[in-house]
Amino acid sequence: MTTTFGQGALASVKSNRGRRGSHALRWWVLVVLGVAQLMVMLDATVVNIALPAAQQDLGFSDGNRQWVITGYALAFGSLLLLGGRLGDLFGRRTTFMLGLIGFAGASVVGGAAGSFGILVAARVGQGVFAALLAPAALSLVSVTFTEKAERAKAFGIFSALAGAGAAIGLLLGGMLTEWASWRWVMFVNVGFAAVALVGAVLLLAKHVADERPKLDIPGTLVVSTALFAIVYGFAHAESAGWTGPVTLGFLIGGVVLLAVFVVLETRAEHPLLPLRLVLDRTRGGSFLAVFVIGMGMFSIFLFLTYYLVVSLGYSPIKSGLAFLPMVAGIVAASTTLPSLLLPRVGPKIVISSSFLVSAVGMALLARLELGSSFATHVMPGLILLGIGLGGVMTTAFQGATAGVHHEDAGVASALINTSQQVGGSISTALLTTVATSAMTDYLHSHQPGALTVLHAHIESYTATFRWGIGIFVAGAVLAAILVPNAALAPSEGEPVVAH
Fold it and tell me: What confidence score (pLDDT) does residue 494 get?
């Protein structure tokens, strides 16, 4: 058996001989991984637009509707760390391909669903296989691009797809629902998965296992249960309030289990999550930055979509098109800042200043009124948000995997996805409460009438945007305190079988 010999800097004192590093087909590998990442990110929002049509077709209630979204989030969020570690233990190529096949299969089941139960089960299945797929894709980027300059460019492209995917999902969901059927928001995943699977078979090298894989079973069970409880607790709070026994029980139980998990990991011989990954200031600060991104991005997509549809009367397709300036900002920042700005000013400055740019964009949206126009009032804020978020994401993704040994690349990548997922769950529940409270207060303090109701809606949206300003400013301050302004070390290549 022979192994490939890559170039690339090392993440440790170990030699990189016999490990995957930058190689001739690396950019085609990035295309394959990018397609898979785009598919996963699309599914975070593409179903939202199609939900009303699916509800009418399958006849489920408003109360049950949230489970189409929550089922995916619960499975995805609670199993990410396990999925990432399985990639480290059994090979990222294997888990990546298994994730693609399973995700496509669950999408077919969902698209053909004849009942609400089957649709929810399919969404849970998508979440399970996305938990394999997402960390495998990101960790493959990390171990494939080990040269500093190329690594920055590769992470920039990958981050652009990650940031733009949710916005593109809104547009694609609107187009498929309006022009075809809600079922096609599920079936379309088969096309993405097929392209990525063919590319994976042709391009991804097989992993070499140096030793017998070992899985931290107690840690896996505890952290999966903890993450499930936390995500479910916030989802339940969104619909049932924060003071109910179910909400409090799940949230408190999840936090306690996380504390138990930390204790277990300090004592485990082969921990699921080696604490050295998060105790490093660069990586710890980057994970926290991704968490803040999750909180901010989900609020933008959720409440700005409400504003466009309810207040401006946009169609689903037009609402999706409205987010394209933000996509352009994300792509521009993600693909230029790593090479132009990051080497000159360092990660602390890039992350902190990018958060502040995002806060300015959010401040512009917080000034929206009933008569605001898209071109002069909405679009400038979206462009600034895109530039800011793109700058944070591309730097934080690199920082979170900086200096990671190949055997930890999967779980580090999973922690990135977990941070974003939990951040989104928290902000969706928290800001829904903020919006509801703001609308209620406005209605109680003004004369009843149709115009008052319209203004109350605006007040509910802008209240969440004002919170968004605070979230992004807090992110800037935390990054300035935690993230050292040192060059980001590359990851270590992984051992692979030569083609």
Answer: 59
